[in-house]
Amino acid sequence: MLLKTFESRRGGWEMYPTRWSVLVTLVLACAACGPEATYPEETQEPGNTSRSIIEGNGLSLNGLSLNGLSLNGLSLNGLSLNGLSTDAFKNWFNADPTQRNEIMKHVVACGVPSGETRTYTSQGITYTWQGSLGLAPSWASGNAATVVEQQVVSACMAAHANKFGIHVSISLLGVNGAGNTIPYTSQELTDYGVREACFFGNLFDGSTGTFGANDGLALASNESAARVCGLSGSQCSPMVYAGSCSQSCTLDATSTFYTSCTYNGVTYRPVTTRMRAQDINRCGDGVCQATESSGTCAADC
Fold first, then answer.
1. Which residues neighbour 215 within 8 Å (Cβ) at sequence distance 6 or greater?
2. Which of 29, 179, 268, 299 stands 20 to 30 A from 173 (CA)?
């Protein structure tokens, strides 16, 4: 299936320090905690192609600041080979190739369609980034990113953030920058049966950042989850917790995902995430999970 789950099905990364820095931080944090993110092939059902499941998200929160993504030439020159050939991008990338590589891996996965890649050579090393969700078709084709494309790619990256750097498969749903629904299947909704969160914001404008809100995920006192950016509290700073999705966002006609979110007077193009029930950890199952400790689950740890 096509990893529609980033941090879990096409969605999950963490990043930051100054919006560009934040994005960088988030990317690094997740990348440092687990195996490298992978993007599976898409699965098909009669008449439907699923493109929303993303696995291996785990983007670190430090990458969520994207500080400079709008300044490095990408947003002006397009997420194309020409857009990667500018001196501005070269200077930005060479400042920290390891970190920038992680950020670009997520940017390309979110913005560029499956089956396409972006390649960049720096200091004798060639980096190849795989497209997956295709959320920014105009930007991916070489044009300047529209505000809506900036928003939905930012939302996608925020959905990939993982405080613990653990790769969790998730389902990422919504509408891309061109207004088209991200393909999904009924089986996907069944497999990823837990409504988790919605994410929105803008990492490219140098000031907005990202927001995460809860879409119904409620953990019992003996439960915990690696994905906490949609739960109350400042657990995923610099991402801001925005309460309940239902308070700020508008559902599509089928009530499956949100098409827009308005927060502090600004309307954004969000992404909606779902997770699997088996990815919720329970104290007492005999396994000490990364989300548990002797203080929170003495029975297991």
1. 195, 196, 197, 198, 230, 244, 245, 246, 258, 272, 273
2. 29
